[in-house]
Amino acid sequence: MSTQTTTTTAYDARAIAPSALAELRVTDDAGRACVPYSAGEGGDPLRCCLRLSVPGERIALVSYAPLRRWAAGTGAEPGAYDEQGPVFVHAEECGGPAPSETYPFARAEALRTVRRYDAAGRIVGGRLLEIPEATSEGFDRAFAEAFADPAVALVHVRAVEYGCFHFEVRRP
Ligand SMILES: [Zn+2]
Predict the structure, then answer these.
(1) Ligand 1 mean position to 150 CA, how many Å?
(2) Distance 97 CA to ligand 1 centre (A)
(3) Are residues 54 and 18 in the same domain?
(4) Cα separation of 97 and 108, whole Å?
(5) Do 86 and 117 fall into the same domain?
């Protein structure tokens, strides 16, 4: 799984898995056809490789169901906790994230939700994170706090303003 992980942060920020991306680039998790377009001026947060788009790249906005995708691999049944939302991805295979010394999309003062899920796929709490100047320490503390609860199997990091999925962290 090395293509999905970073190497130097305390926790691994997981991008959307290559197998899921291959499917999303045809039909998204809402059943809609993928419609590639040019990124224009760029700056769109790409959840396939955890970086911002550069001008003119071919990207797509697709609906993604991260909990459903995780549950399909573990046998969990999230039921009503399943949800889907918009994510930007490259329109074609991109090779996934490059190793990084920081967490993806870590910008001081930005607001994130760190939502916790148990092994059955149920929400077991969460917290608001205002990313501090020391961005990695801020994320590390939030993840350590989440996994201090033995019931927590994974967390989703989301933007507060748009609610969109940024990345997933599983129990180390
Ligand atoms: Zn990508």
Answers:
(1) 33
(2) 7
(3) yes
(4) 21
(5) no
- The pLDDT tens digits of the residues spanning 63-83 come to 999 999 999 999 999 999 999
What's residue 89's pLDDT? 98
CA-closest candidate to residue 170, choices 39, 79, 69 = 69
Looking at the fold, whether 118 and 75 belong to one and the same domain comes out as no
Say which DSSP state 68 is in: H
Residues with CB under 5 A from ligand 1 (ion): 46, 48-49, 90, 94
| Domain membership flag for residue 70 | yes
Q: Are the C-beta atoms of residues 96 and 18 closer than 8 Å to each other? A: yes
Residue 57 lies in domain:
2-90
pTM of the predicted structure, to 2 decimals: 0.91
Tokens found for residue 104: 């993806």
Sites in the chain below the pLDDT cut of 70 = 1-7
Looking at the structure, tell me whether residues 79 and 145 fall in a common domain. no
